């Protein structure tokens, strides 16, 4: 045989390292349970310079107590860490770099910390591997960014390490799986140690260390939109979207991004949608977080199912009382799961619709605006046509194209935006700010959120552009311009070409869709305030304090 | 407020139905444990006409005992079931339809049963919803195909329902999650009931009923390829792939499909790859099942990590002894997970390369050949460029294209095939058989496995075509034809155009890549037999009986 002499090799180095790490933590723990007062010592004892460390910073929940412990490590002992974190949202996430504990960063989103992030990058304090979407970052934890240590969070744990995540399951099972099965060390901060968890979201033998945090983990109500702030323009756009996209394509499975534009759609279903006789014909199956603005549609019998990426503070009792609609455990509370909801959104859902801050003439869009290195979150995964899909649905087939031998349908990817943002800033621009931000940050390609050639529909207050029908980039640009209003992209639109595009079905104005602009009033909203949502919920929705005005 | 009068509604119908179903099974069970002799009665008592039932039929493991029980149900009692099953591989899977128990089917793959499947479809005995890829089918279980009952399988369970899957975790956690958190009923056949499972792969409170099967679940060694059957042509193609794709693009993260072509690549790494000085530069991180033909590369220090969709019989002891490379639990055995490995393959991996049975002039390819409605499996998910990816790598960036404002990289999607299959059947054809099969089966679009415009590289024994460089469909066809040999697609290739394509870098012949055809001999394989693989493994690989010839 051709066997070369194989080098002698130890194949259990990670297992040995894990044993040594856990031994080093022993003085600060009793079995699996770390003494909360010694959390800093335990984290420091666990880590080795250069370690690849996941810090759970999800879209919503944050392992904030462990983040503080990490930031407080002695940089003479723990340094050059490679931090993996989905969402950079707490000051501690960047303190870790300023204090010299970590050096390299792979992340997905940096909303509240985006300005400081850009600064630290410019200073060379942070060395960025790449900016990912959430699921890309998790995907790499199984390939080339396998964690040495994961710092996670959950609601409760029992003494065997079984974890209860409650409604915000989010990303904990995925990160725990990547770490536990690669002989990494999983450390979890929990709000409460209990004798028996109400249900097991993550099995105890995946968990090495637990610390009972002195305060509950941080959690933001990111998906709550107060209907009070929905104005006539959002309502008009929602009417256009319902008639021009949902009804026309018979969209039964869908995902909504965050924002007032799609919240308006949710609040028009029980009124405008009902008038149009669309209940049961559209919007039956959803993948999205438990948006409070979806309550009226649920209560009116529009919604058969909702699978969630994460939870939403205040929606706990409502969700628990609607188990036929939401995915809940035997304990009654939501089980969310970002990776599975992303999978569902990508492969089982016909429409993604989301708001954008900037759109260029080619329909490329981005929420990255000047100076802010925000990253991507999950929109790019939802906002593209997955070429790996093979099952058909009426909505998907309605956009079919290609040679007969390779005919295929297409996912509906819609962008919705007013032509001008607050303060008269045009939403349609010649060049996305993202291009300059990308250049400044030394990114190899510009941080575009959704590529123009993936966008099938564009909605503004002017009308709907059916970009999927465009014969090529030139015609796509014409269709974008036709509904871009008086922005730099729209103001030179040729009126006769717009008429031709209407005739050819590439552009529809409100009158083409039978939408009466005069009806775009707040009285058409099923709920006009948070208080209304509480009433719709039969008192089951508990809005966070900041949303209570009564 | 605008609240419409909401209809009075029961929001806990699924929970009530679950309680009733479990009550009906009580006579045949003691707590969670079903009396194996009464499995048929239990399954029949559990089901209601019209139920949506998942039967675990994964790519590899099969809940065969429960499949028999299902097929034996009385069709007067249980009928019109809607069956969801990933892989139709056992006769019982179709008996269920012939016996009148089930009517509707959503599935992903029908390898061994594909001929009978096509027949039952033509007879109207089976009503097909759609043919999916694996992950699409799972995705829909969270959206519009939420299961009422799931019939699953695992290695072991304890009396609290905690499941141990061993190496073939595959799809059980995903299906269990979809079912358990939607108030569906999960029933699991296990090979063994134990007091304590070696590790918990699925928590007990996700599991309703357990039956100890009288025999272990069926499991096929689908990913084992005997090096004895690798000939000079496969070796030549592997050399071309290594030099023309892996080395040229510095591919460090990858997925291999099943087949002798890619097995040859695996077996050339420690020999030809070593000579070229490529160790550490290519093929470091893998997403694929534990292929026995990867053993020599692992032993020679090429492979840093492997994450797996499923397991492979015979590889258990070897994998357990190489925990630094494979994802294993504290019990030592593999933890696989199809959904997470697919996620990794889609978003973290730079190259997919797989064999195809037929390729047309536009590079569309399919393994569906006449009369066989095989379906898709997982290749389409791996074999496309995910537009939702946002992080860069050298390999991905090497294929970048687009306007500067929307510049992006691209996944390498390679197809590898000889120009003629066994028996002189051309692999390159004017029209894929899939087109006719799709028409005959009434499919809305032809069942193409991988679309031509997603294929970046094509390898035959003639050379490599760099299709991603083609300026358009016409040039892509020329590049395909240039390496399609004497097939209907290749025989009219214009020699002068081929020269031009070589000059422009769209086509590379062996001499262009520095590949010496004379070296394409079996002596270049690191292992030339299953026995060699056992030796490489230090006796840790236990090949299934059918692969043992000594």
From TrEMBL, chains A, B:
NCBIfam families: mdcA (TIGR01110). This is Malonate decarboxylase subunit alpha. It comes from the Bacteria. It comes from Microbispora corallina. SUPFAM superfamilies: NagB/RpiA/CoA transferase-like. Pfam families: Mal_decarbox_Al. InterPro entries: MadA (IPR005777), NagB/RpiA_transferase-like (IPR037171). The lineage of its organism: Bacteria, Bacillati, Actinomycetota, Actinomycetes, Streptosporangiales.
